[in-house]
Design a protein that fits this description.
globular, 2 domains, two-stranded antiparallel ribbon, 12 strands
Length: about 280
């Protein structure tokens, strides 16, 4: 297989920005001394089956982004291209125009997922050699509840809090409508890998008029009537969405760096002899 990787990075990251003083996009947030999107790109560089890595960024900020990051992107062999302005599907659709015609498959990975394990990527890529569309996922372990749209007061707001402006709004609670069965329900992750011609054909059918409900690339393929297969994901394949996620991701990075250093030291000391 020859795989082109697309890293959508044009999202506004409003939930992340709301909790930080970050002025740039969340994928430029520094994690372990390196921007999040650079960690994500590193996951695929050096693999024999990956022949191209594309980073899809906000078209209005593309030149500024290139000015700030072109040296690192060029060194890594990553190309920044114009993505969409509002929705993820648009970024992927535009990035597909830059995919090499020699690519047999396209992998789409969130630029805000910087710590996917090599073992999980191997599982997805291996399965993609046998199936046209493959995604990683994990079974839902939490209880699922369907809630109503309206909120009910959880009690009177503390007048002292209100006086001191310690609470921005009265406390509220959502009304649970019912429990949703979790059997067979999975949390889907990235990278998601597709045969190139299939993904291009499916995205050709998507536009602003019929994109409602499109939350990932698999849903584009499913909507066109094709089968998507799922393999085991990675519990630590976390996505930077909220500021609190950064601390968890930093811890995972430290853990994996320490593990890699320990393994390298053991190999240097004992070699590859298992006797």
């Amino acid at each position: 297989m020859q795989i082109s990787v697309i890293l959508p990075a044009a999202g506004l990251g409003q939930r992340f920005a709301a909790g930080t003083a970050q002025s740039s996009s969340k994928v430029e947030f520094e994690l372990g001394g390196k921007a999040v999107f650079l960690h994500a790109a590193d996951l695929f560089l050096g693999r024999a089956d990956v022949t191209q890595v594309l980073l899809a960024v906000d078209p209005d900020k593309l030149e500024d982004f290139r000015f700030r990051w072109e040296d690192k992107l060029s060194f890594m062999g990553v190309a920044a291209v114009a993505g969409g302005k509002a929705d993820r599907w648009e970024s992927v659709k535009l990035a597909l125009q830059h995919v090499s015609p020699h690519a047999t498959h396209v992998a789409v990975h969130d630029a805000a997922r910087p710590v996917a394990s090599a073992a999980m990527i191997d599982r997805v890529f291996d399965a993609a050699a046998h199936h046209d569309a493959v995604v990683p996922g994990l079974p839902m372990g939490d209880t699922l509840k369907l809630v109503g749209e309206d909120a009910e007061p959880a009690g009177d707001a503390d007048p002292l809090d209100a006086l001191l402006s310690l609470t921005a709004s009265p406390r509220s609670a959502l009304r649970i409508e019912r429990t949703v069965p979790r059997a067979g329900v999975y949390r889907v992750q990235t990278p998601q890998v597709f045969r190139r011609e299939l993904l291009v054909a499916c995205y050709d059918r998507i536009d602003a008029g019929n994109a409602d409900g499109i939350t990932d690339d698999a849903s584009v393929v499913e909507r066109a009537g094709h089968t998507v297969h799922l393999v085991e994901g990675d519990p630590l394949n976390l996505k930077l969405t909220h500021p609190a996620d950064a601390e968890l991701l930093a811890a995972v990075l430290r853990m994996r760096e320490e593990s890699s250093a320990r393994l390298a030291a053991e190999r240097a000391l004992f070699g590859d002899d298992e006797d």
